[in-house]
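Before a colleague's protein record goes any further, I have to sign it off. What it holds is a sequence and that sequence's fold in token form. Would you go through it and say whether the fold makes sense for this chain? The record follows directly below this note.
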Amino acid sequence: MKRTLTVCFATVLLTTGLAKATAEPALKLHFAGIENLIQREDAKTLKAVWTQKETRTLRTEALGKLARHLATQSGKGVSIFNSILPDIGLGETYLTVAPGERNPDVTFMAEMSKTRGGEWVKRLKQLSTRDGIEPEEKTQAGYNGWQLDYKNGRSVGFGYADGWLLLGIGKSTFETLKQAAQRISDTGRPAPANAEQDLTLELTLLSQLPALQNLLSGKANAVRLTSRLRKDNFFTKAVVTYDEALPASTAKWEIPTRTITEPLASFTAARGVGMATAGSVLGRVQLKPANDQFFAWSQARTKFQSFFAVKVGDPAAEIAGLAKRIDTFKKPGGAGENYIGKVVHDPKKPVVTWGNVPLFAPYLTKANSADKGYVVGGVFPPDPIKKPIPQELLNEFINKKNLVYYNWEITGQRLEKWNLLIQFAAILSDRREQLVNKTKGIEFITSLYPKLGNTITDATVNGKELTITRKSHLGLSALEIALLTRWLDNPQFPKPTLEWPKPAETPRAKPRRIKPRKKPAAKK
């Protein structure tokens, strides 16, 4: 389910994938604007995060990288983009992306001051001028605007109307801009106000967006996401519609309650369709749950304590099989020949451990004897306290009809753990360039640890619909914040990758040749 809600911050990449689509609007977005949200009395956490130095610094750095990328793509000066990009998302915003003949048609309307609107118009004129074509001034509902029609058939229109910047790319957007200008003249707004939601995102034509389709298991065809800030929390709901009915999970939960112990910082339970993310990870190590269920949790005492448990047919055989597969993986010539550490299999306990690894101590072993058939894995030993998972936590979801996923976390604590876990593979493989420690992103993540509290996410299945709901301080889980920050922090941003580039090899300086000293002449 983390994959599904990742959609809310992945939309910035979508427009490039719509060029070949053949239906009506594929993306519709309305956002209340961050500067409007933090003015509310019930936005204490959001305001604290948005106004802190670490957030401003990371945002400035990411926008600078985006500006350089756009300047390279357009052949224009970077100063043009540096002067307008910081306005995006501050005020109320409408965005629509629809398939065009060759490229997507985009409508963008954003609330901003007259000064900022004038700067946008100035910079858009500079960006739009090419092939000797100058913007043609037009008037609509008493407002001045500009239109350019290029030789390749592409058209651009833009203007500023009483507090709103209006921009359209593609002729099909011009009618929308005209209607918006008239509404602003009549009501002061380009569209009716939405008092129910602060964020609305609608996505269709998912088959045209393979990168997004891969995030949503199965043949999803549409996503509708809404979010409302209330009482210092975002209440988010995402409905994913599929081509075919989804299998509903009817099997009862089999929770290894003696293995999952306090003090907990997070807990996840998944089954059936809800195992999309966990299933892909388990598939890599060839662990297949016998009951189609998966459990994960972390403990609060240290930042290294993260665990998972699955039920298998023969725990001892599964542990031995994993030990053999890791051994093959690490052998010379294998895919993991450069991985550090030593793998030891003890068939008596039974347990397989991966030792001599900095910070971590990965292992897989049998779960508590009361949880028959379960194996438990982690990257650090569990707390010696054996107090079982609270029944109150289990009561939150075990009787909920058609539920396939549940996650609770103390997001600040969990974020500290994910910040380490997403670099775990880099530590094992000794890929030092992937170890990120002193960056603006790490400073930002660290600043969030004491600020973010409980996040609760669940998902239910009903026919062709998968419905995810969440209550959280920022709208995102700890994992999503960690991954988003790593992307923004990446020197290659906005390239869609979490892999950091290898450092350029510094040519070795040639050794200086020391000339032998001349012997002093002998005295006569």
